[in-house]
Fold:
Amino acid sequence: MENKNLSVAGEREIITSLVINGDLSKLTPVQQVQYYNMFCDSLGLNPLTKPFDLVNLQGKKVLYANKNCAEQLRRNNGVSFLEMHQEIISELCVTTVKGQDKTGRLDVETGAVSIKGLSGNDLANAMMKSATKAKRRLTLSLCSIGVLDETELETIPNAERQEINITGTVTETFKEEKQASAPVSTAPAATKPASQSKLSPEGRAQIIEVGMEMIENKYNGWTERRLELKVQKAEIQGDAVVLPEMEKEYVAFLAFMKANGKKTVEPEVGM
Structure:
């Protein structure tokens, strides 16, 4: 009886941690995926497109929103940007964005990025990053999603990101770029996953964003299953094989949409 009570107490502690802190650290990989799927379902997001990943923050493991999450939320909730203002404050580029959702609810958010010592293309990229950060934060705010966005992780020391693996197994964990100088593990190859993905995060984002647009427009038999298979193919064969295929398909898709007088939303990441 005592062991049973301890087990119940442990389960209550886990549930309390999830409800109050969103902490998944005490869940098994399979339970983490179950929670992830339920969270996606509650927001009307497709879990196969991996709209969330995990991050370790001072012993807590929480979900954070990535680019795929923001794009789907924007479409599902009719988020539009009404005004955008950018200014340089000290050594920061600060972008302020005003927007609304399909119900007419208004909100304002900002995105700040350090531009200390930057010039030319580096400065231009930082300014665009500031705009992207503001848009993402506004999207999450309008959709009432109380999670971090990936653009905010780089300002958090020692944040360790981990991709969600929908099979329920743990995938690669990695730190932000500023932690790249940490010692590389010398563990034997046999302790690593049997196969390593050849698909870069940027390539995944491009494939998913373009695929989702074609799915939503019911183009040429595109389905979520077809997109899942395309991502799996890219993980095995790499960006260089699948991205050209997606680009060719997307060009044909744009021609189809134009011929039928339909509008498209250009991807944030270019093909």
User: Anything to note?
Assistant: The longest strand covers residues 80-89. The helical segments are 2-21, 29-43, 67-76, 120-142, 201-216, 224-237, 239-259.
